[in-house]
Amino acid sequence: xxxxxxxxxxxxxxxxxxxxxxxxxxxxxxxxxxxxxxxxxxxxxxxxxxxxxxxxxxxxxxxxxxxxxxxxxxxxxxxxxxxxxxxxxxxxxxxxxxxxxxxxxxxxxxxxxxxxxxxxxxxxxxxxxxxxxxxxxxxxxxxxxxxxxxxxxxxxxxxxxxxxxxxxxxxxxxxxxxxxxxxxxxxxxxxxxxxxxxxxxxxxxxxxxxxxxxx
Length: 215
Known about the structure:
215 residues, seven-stranded mixed sheet
């Protein structure tokens, strides 16, 4: 098995209190195939409203294991392939190790951006950013006259999908076992520290014109 080489929650303020700025896991938006070509949407409220004993990293790790890996394994047989884009790889790295993946029946970790060998007898678990580029790459795996690359697919996005991205995934509905918006788009670096992965966040002065960097 390969390990993840490169690394989910989004700050969702609910008030003016400083404590409301902490990342929270309030729910997952679940989209599943319905009648072959349609997607039905409902809300699945998680029980992760209280911090885990190990802090933020342990909380995110638990969410990924339960709502991504174990949820996919429950609908699959045998081993699974985990396919990550660059953004998802940065999110997963701080919270999951090789042993965690093997325990959840993940035998291979692949890069979405690279050419991949097909495994038609294995389930693919995609974790990707909710961008048009990444979603298009996922959809492209299942397009064309060639045989399907995997037995079926579970797609998880780090943030909410737009209408365009949602439409791009409709063509793979026949093989789509789950489509879940995780809303986990930050890096859990430590138990009480996270990063939004915005390199320019402190380079531009408040109120400055776009593109005007600090000296």
